[in-house]
Amino acid sequence: MKFSIKRVSALVVTQFKELHRDFGTVFLNLIFPVMFVFALIATDLANPTFEFKIGVVDERQTQGARDFVQTLTASPGMQIRTISREEADAALKDGGVHAVFIVDDAGFAADHGQVQILVSPRFEAFSGILLDAVRDRMRQQVDPHTRVFEYQVSNPDIEVRSELSFTFPGLLALAMVQLGLFATAVPLLAARDRGTLRYLSLTPLSMTEMLVGQLAVRVAIALLQVSLILLAGSTMLTITLLQWLQVFGISILGILLLVSIGYAIAGMAKSQQGGTAAILFLNFTMLMGGNVFMDPTESSVQYFAACVIPISYLADLYRQAISGETGLWPVWLDVLVVLGATLVAIAFALRTFRFDTDMRSRSVVAA
User: Fold this and answer.
1) Please, are residues 236 and 322 in contact by the beta-carbon 8 Å criterion?
2) Rounded CA gap, 137 and 232, in Å?
3) Domains (ranges, CATH) in the chain?
4) Residues ≥6 apart with Cβ < 8 Å to 122
5) First to last CA, the chain
6) pLDDT tens per residue across span 33-90
7) Could you tell me if 330 and 307 are in contact, meaning their C-beta atoms sit under 8 angstroms apart?
8) pTM recorded for the entire structure
9) What string of H, E and C letters represents the secondary structure of 144-161?
10) CA dihedral in degrees (258, 259, 261, 267; nearest 10)?
């Protein structure tokens, strides 16, 4: 049978009409991810309890250095913790501290100490103002004319990761998960349960036309999802045109992966109830263990889970594109795993897909 654009177009229009009537699917795939972005932005802007986190390197802890740390701790809105010099760069990079103060103990013992500040340009001015205030208070306690300490600012050559820059790419991965599970698997299960797919199999519509039509709808939904999320995120993050293009390219990989998984679930499920249970379980597993919102480097168990869940590699691609940081894995490995998982999901879908609950003989392969 010759491939017909007209039949595919009619199927696409029909599916969009069905989606328009299904508020739950529209909410999960378009409204919810954008609401999530704005909720994160609102939380970041409206946080009245911001604390400036400082890591202090004070290895010998002389009396003068202890006085400095005590005066620093008395400053309002400060969160002070002692770290080693080896931990300083990592703490700055992952956002554990906003600045590192390295104390010269010998200098403090002679009342002319030295403090080296490691800080990103964003917090450089605030750190200088803070140390000026600390020095003035220490002078009042001893001699107004004493030097007490001097400080020198250094900007380490590292990329500082904010919470938003880590969480925001996870929302893009979340959108792909919702697309594959709730906008692909759920509608397929419902259509099979009520006999719609079986009726379609009796029409002139070929299986190729059906797959192209369904994939076209989901590509359109995904690109709209991604565009809305990027527009919302642009209010807080700088996202260049190149990053937009990279995210769209990654999203194509995500569509292929998650839609294939959606078809595989719909094929393997013996009933709509069983399929729904599997969808909810996979949704929880992917979001909690798949490098979407939880940093897998925090524990070996989380890292192992991230390694075996394909969505982790998609989220890693998004994170590298948005933040510009080195990811958990190289880009080539992320792409390879996503493509490999897609092929596996397609193989399962081709083998197991059927048009209704009672008919197993007519599969995708046979069509």
Assistant:
1) no
2) 44
3) 5-43+162-352 (no CATH), 52-154 (3.40.1710.10)
4) 160
5) 11
6) 777 777 766 666 555 555 788 888 887 777 777 888 888 888 887 888 888 888 888 7
7) no
8) 0.70
9) CCCCEEEEEEECCCCCCC
10) 170
